Amino acid sequence: xxxxxxxxxxxxxxxxxxxxxxxxxxxxxxxxxxxxxxxxxxxxxxxxxxxxxxxxxxxxxxxxxxxxxxxxxxxxxxxxxxxxxxxxxxxxxxxxxxxxxxxxxxxxxxxxxxxxxxxxxxxxxxxxxxxxxxxxxxxxxxxxxxxxxxxxxxxxxxxxxxxxxxxxxxxxxxxxxxxxxxxxxxxxxxxxxxxxxxxxxxxxxxxxxxxxxxxxxxxxxxxxxxxxxxxxxxxxxxxxxxxxxxxxxxxxxxxxxxxxxxxxxxxxxxxxxxxxxxxxxxxxxxxxxxxxxxxxxxxxxxxxxxxxxxxxxxxxxxxxxxxxxxxxxxxxxxxxxxxxxxxxxxxxxxxxxxxxxxxxxxxxxxxxxxxxxxxxxxxxxxxxxxxxxxxxxxxxxxxxxxxxxxxxxxxxxxxxxxxxxxxxxxxxxxxxxxxxxxxxxxxxxxxxxxxxxxxxxxxxxxxxxxxxxxxxxxxxxxxxxxxxxxxxxxxxxxxxxxxxxxxxxxxxxxxxxxxxxxxxxxxxxxxxxxxxxxxxxxxxxxxxxxxxxxxxxxxxxxxxxxxxxxxxxxxxxxxxxxxxxxxxxxxxxxxxxxxxxxxxxxxxxxxxxxxxxxxxxxxxxxxxxxxxxxxxxxxxxxxxxxxxxxxxxxxxxxxx
Amino acid sequence: xxxxxxxxxxxxxxxxxxxxxxxxxxxxxxxxxxxxxxxxxxxxxxxxxxxxxxxxxxxxxxxxxxxxxxxxxxxxxxxxxxxxxxxxxxxxxxxxxxxxxxxxxxxxxxxxxxxxxxxxxxxxxxxxxxxxxxx
Lengths: 656, 135
Known about the structure:
The complex is a heterodimer.
Chain A: H1 3-32, H2 39-56, H3 60-79, H4 87-103, H5 111-123, H6 146-149, H7 156-180, H8 185-213, E1 214-216, H9 221-235, E2 239-244, E3 249-251, H10 252-273, H11 277-282, E4 289-298, E5 301-308, H12 315-319, H13 327-334, H14 352-361, E6 365-371, E7 375-383, E8 388-396, E9 399-404, E10 408-413, E11 418-420, E12 423-428, E13 431-437, H15 438-442, E14 454-460, E15 463-468, E16 471-479, E17 493-498, E18 504-508, H16 510-522, E19 536-540, H17 544-556, E20 560-564, H18 567-576, E21 580-585, H19 594-603, E22 612-616, H20 621-630, E23 634-637, H21 643-655
Helix pairs in contact in A: 1-2, 1-4, 1-9, 2-3, 3-4, 3-5, 4-5, 7-8, 9-10, 10-14, 18-19
Chain B: E1 5-10, E2 13-18, E3 22-27, E4 31-32, E5 41-47, E6 50-56, H1 57-60, E7 71-77, E8 80-86, E9 88-93, E10 107-113, E11 116-121, H2 123-132
Parallel strand pairs in B: 2-11, 6-8
Antiparallel strand pairs in B: 1-2, 1-9, 3-7, 4-5, 5-6, 7-8, 10-11
C-alpha cells in the first residue's frame, strides 16, 4: 500500500468511526423512543457517506455492507419511520462495519440476509406498532454553524511533537531559574517581571497544546451506553447508566485505551453485579439497577469510577483479602483460577486481569471496593497526560530517583521499626507498612542510609511500601523520556528525565516498587542483589478471546506476555525484539499460519532455538506430525485444553 | 581495509570503528547508573537534552579493565544511537593492511599495523547484540 493510500485509509477510518458512533447513538435513541423526527434521515446520510467513501477506496466488503444498511434506511425513510425491531440488526451491521474497517474482519454470516429481510419487510407492509417519537424530541445531532464546527485532521505524531516541545520548554524554564539564581539581586529584580510574563505565557501555551491532545470522557458515553444495553438485554435485567463528569478531559491515547477496560468493567457490573428484578425487590432495592460512571480529577490523575448498586462480592471473597493485599489482588487472581474453591466468585473477577493490565499499561491503577449486598465500586486511576509528570525527587546513594507525585502518600522519618519473620515494617497510624531500602527495591548498590533517613510511603495497586532514601530533593515537573530499546529490558522504570540542573533522574514505576517489596519479602534471606528476570512469552492467536484467555493464564502464572494476531505480525515482533523466551501459537490464522510461522522461526538463524508450542483445534495425528515436522517443541489441542499441561510445557521449555 | 576508521584503545587493545557510524567523540562525562540494567550498561547520559544509553566496550569485547574509561564514542546504526566508553581515541584515518578473520563475534575482522593488531568492530552487529541481550 502506498503512503498516500495509507493516509486516506486512516482518514476514512476516522470518519467512518465518527459516523458509526452517530449511527449507534441514534439507533439507541430510536429504541428508547427518544429519537427526533429527522433521526432516519441522519442515519441514512451517515450510512450513505460511509458507502461512498468505501467505494472510492475500493473497500468492497465495507461498501456492500454499507449499501445494504442504506437500503434498509431508505425503505424506512420512505415508510416514514424506523420500527424498533430493526434496531438490533442495524446495530449488528454497525458493529460489523466497524470490525471490517478496523480489523478487516469478515461480515458475520447471516447478517446480510437479516438486512435484506428487514428491507423486504417494508415492501411487504409488515404492520407493527411503531414507537411514537417523543412529543418534544431531543435533537440527536446538534447542528452548529459551519464556522464554529470547523476542524482540521492532524496526524497524532505532529501533536505529540508539539507537546513534547512544550514540555522541553517547561524544563528549560526551570533551567533558566537555576541559571538566574546566581546573579546579582538588582539585576534579578529587573528580570523578574519578564520571567513572570514568560511563565504565564508558557502556562497558557502548555494548556493550549495539551488541549489539542485531550478529549472529554463524554466521547465514550455512546459505546458505554451500548455495552450496558447489550449486557442488560442478554442478562434480562433492567439497568440504567448514568455518566457524571463527562466533561473531564483525558489524553486521547488514554481515552482510547480506556474504552475496552471500561466496557469490560461495565459488562461485569451488569452480568454479575446487578441482580434479577425479583431478587432486587426482595432485597428492598428499586427494581431497576443503576450503574454510575463518574470521572473526577484527583491531583495529576483522573479517577474514573464505575459504581453499581448490585449484590457486591461475597463475604467469603472479602475474607480472602489478606492484610497487605487488596481486593484487586484477590479478584484478579481468583478470576482465572479453575480451582473449584473460589467458584463462589461467580465470575466477578473474570477479565479483571486484562482490565488491570490495560490500566497499568496507561500508567494507571485499578482499585476495587465492594460491600456484600450493596454493590461494587471499580476505580480506574489514570494520568491526564503522559508527556509531563509531577515527581518527587529523592536521592539514594549515587542515584536520583523520581516518583510520580500521586503515588507518594507521605514522607515519614523512620524512628522505630517492627520486625516479623525477618521482614521489617513501620507503624503508620496504627497500621504496619512494610519497610525496604529503595536501593534494594530497584536492585542498586548504595552505602547504608544514614540512621535518621526519611522513608516515602508509596502506594500502588492497593498496596504500600515505605522506601528508605537518603534525602528528599523536592518536587519537579519533568518530561518523561523513554530509556530506549537498548535499555528497555530493565523493568521498574517509567523512563528517565533530565532535570533543570542537567542531572538525570530515573523515574520509578510505583507498581513495580510494591511488587519488588513482595518479591523481596518472599526470599527468606536476601541473596546478592540481583534482578529477577521474568521470561517473556509471545502468544500468537487470531481470536481475541482465546488470545486474552491464554494471556491471562500465562500472566497469572507469573510470565510476561505479549500478543500477536497472526504469524506475520508475530515474526515481525520476534525479529524486532530478541528477548522472548517462548512462542505459543495457534495454527489456523490469516496471513501466515502457525506451521509456517514455526518454519520461519526455525529458518531464522537468531531465532532457530526459540521454543515453540503449537496449540490448535485440530487433533489429528497428521497435524501433530506436521507441527513437529515444522519444528514445534510441543503440540496441544484446544479440545483437551488444560491449563496445567500448557503451564507444564511452558515451564519445561523456558527452563531448558 | 577501505574507508576512514576511528582507532580507539580499550583496556590494552586497539579497535577501529568506521567513521560513518560515529557521530561524535566526547568526554565520558556524568553518567547516571541504571540499577537493574545488565552489566555492560554504564547508564544514561545527558547529551544536549537527549538521553543516551552508555555501554562499556571492554566487557562487550570480553576484556577486563584495570582503570575506568574516560572517553565516549557516540555511534549509530539503523534506528539506534548509543555511547560507548573507551580509554583513548588514538587517531582517525585510513588503516593500511589486509583484513584478516577475527574470532570475536562483534568483530568484522582484524588488521595488522606497525604497533600491533587492530580489531575492526562491526557496529550494526554490536547494536543487534545489545538489543538481543536480556537485562
